[in-house]
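Support request, please re-run this one:
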Amino acid sequence: MKYFIWLISSVNIYFGFINLLNALNILQSSKYSKTATIVFALLFLTMGIGAFYLSIIKNNQKLGLLLSFGPWVLAILFMFIVMLTSDYK
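Re-run finished. Output below.
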């Protein structure tokens, strides 16, 4: 289970780093607004690093697994709210 958490956390950190580069205008491949890109960068980076910390240092696998899936759930919820509140004309 520890290696599964590391795999998911690595993917989270990768996506967070890509979104951070998009937020800093180093990459320009994001389809979303600057605010959404910054939210995704912070969400994926912090929760990915937190899952690594819980898995390696604290040896709490259940909370590490929950924290590694957390950004995906919160990102989907954020996208749903943005979709409902945006005006597509």
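Residues 61-85 form the longest helix (25 residues). The radius of gyration is 14 Å.
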